Amino acid sequence: MENFKINIENIYTFLSKETISKYASEMEKNNIVLNEKTGKGNDFLGWVKLPTSISADEISEMQATAGSFSKYEVVVVIGIGGSYLGAKSVIEALSNNFQQLVERKAPLVLFAGQNLSEDYMFELCDVLKTKSWAIVSISKSGTTTEPAVCFRILKKQMEEQFGKGETKQRIIAITDKSKGALRTLATKEGYKTYTIPDDVGGRFSVLTPVGLIPIAIAGFDIKKLVEGAVAMQRMCEPNVPFENNPAAIYAAARNALYKAGKNLEILVNYNPKLVYIAEWWKQLYGESEGKEGKGIFPASVTFTADLHSMGQYIQEGTRNIFETVISIKSTNHSVEIPHEESNLDQMNFIAGKSLDFVNKMAELGTVLAHVDGGVPNIQIELGKLNEFSIGQLLYFFEIACGISGYTLDVNPFDQPGVEAYKKNMFALLGKPGFEKETEAIKKRIE
User: Fold this and answer.
1) Which percentage of the chain shows pLDDT scores above 70?
2) Is residue 99 within 8 Å of 108, Cβ to Cβ?
3) Which of 308, 333, 436, 443 is catalytic?
4) Do 172 and 131 have their domain in common?
5) Residue 410's domain is classified under what CATH number?
6) CA-CA distance, 84 to 174, in Å (whole number)?
7) Parallel, antiparallel, or unpaired for β 108-112 and 74-78?
8) Span 200-213, mean pLDDT?
9) Is position 423 annotated as part of the catalytic site?
């Protein structure tokens, strides 16, 4: 198994080891509650044992579907929130940084339905006019505004480009098993379909077809991804002692820091491929814990770039923050810094070193500086950036989130606050059934 490590030594300047140890029994109890499905939101805990429940046949079938879509130049994945962030985070983490400029063996996966930008949609539709393309539409209900509107627009264009008969072969619907607008349409039109499990919420759905189908279409090994998640599931089971359970340690550390006044967590990476892992993580923790006036605010930065923008605040700003750093032990490639006779840039002192060595020294130097500046630091180390390690990381964050949410004494698996903006938007748009709300909101804005 590739190495996965968590290191919380750099919080002990701020909290004693005894303080963290006192959380051990609570973490173990909350982990049992998760696994036995006896806590709040227990009807949305299908993800907890999901990795070990995915069969080889299911993986093979999804890979076969992905293979049948490999003939297209572009596949547009339509979804919002957990219906796109999980897949996008994995694809971005594993892709060539310059994937649009290199020769591809798999379709270019683009994402839509995650915003209401007219320019974004116009430019997407425009570029698709000259491409061979397909759609993966992801929505449990089929009536969520952003993806529903996007699917309506793209389906119309696809029918005009390729005809209704061909369109049916170019669409995969990932939706509810038996009900909802997208399921009804898929059944009527004969689209290839996959099911979103009833007991898995969107932000925990990356290891269902919601994430696995787009990831496989993009050309990545979903079998290895699931194997990484399985390995982490076993590392984090309730029978694993607290001191050996990375998810329990992380949940304990962040809750102890929260009680000590550190209510803002910054997820740090030193590889730009991890930007969307951070975006996925922010939804996971923000939507799970931010309720009832509680919760750690999740933010993110990419170093060393953001050291030249956010570094000042992190070093000397309000002392309510802590950092969780994703560190990658070994790179997939090597670049050596050359020697220059003129040495005008004065960089010969690192000539002959790998760029990753310099990056690691920047990481270590930053950790030391931030700890000295009053910012506790948690380190998560991956062996390499590949499907297996990303599978480990995703499940680690998911199970730790469940444990942490129960420690906060909230329901980590609902999101009642998300509905507020929708009600106002529907009222402003004059949606049928919202007549009273429309009248009331118009009075507010007059």
Assistant:
1) 100
2) yes
3) 308
4) yes
5) 3.40.50.10490
6) 12
7) parallel
8) 97
9) no
Active site residue 422: yes
**Tens of pLDDT, residues 231-262:** 999 999 999 999 999 999 999 999 999 999 99
Ramachandran angles phi, psi of 151, nearest 5°: -65, -40
Domain span at residue 310?
4-42+226-415
Shared domain check, 182 and 78: yes
Catalytic residue among 129, 179, 353, 422: 422
Sorted by sequence, the CB contacts under 8 Å of residue 153 that are 6+ apart come out as: 121, 125
Report the domain count for the chain: 2
Residue that the structure tokens 């227990």 belong to: 42
CA distance 428 to 196: 31
* Domain membership flag for residue 320: yes
In sequence order, which residues have a C-beta less than 8 Å from that of residue 74 and are 6 or more positions away?
107, 108, 109, 110, 128, 131, 132, 133, 134
Average pLDDT over residues 329-342: 97
State the catalytic residue, choosing from 287, 289, 363, 387. 287
Q: How crowded is residue 26: how many other Cβ atoms within 10 Å of its Cβ?
A: 17
| Residue 408 structure tokens | 């906060």
Task: Let me know if 282 is exposed, middle or buried by CB neighbors in 10 A (0-12, 13-18, 19+).
Answer: middle
Phi-psi region of 321 (alpha: psi -120 to 50; beta: other; left: phi over 0): beta
If asked whether residues 77 and 35 sit together in one domain, one would say: no
The DSSP code for 303 is: T
Burial class (CB in 10 A: 0-12, 13-18, 19+), 121: middle
Residue 333 annotated as catalytic: no
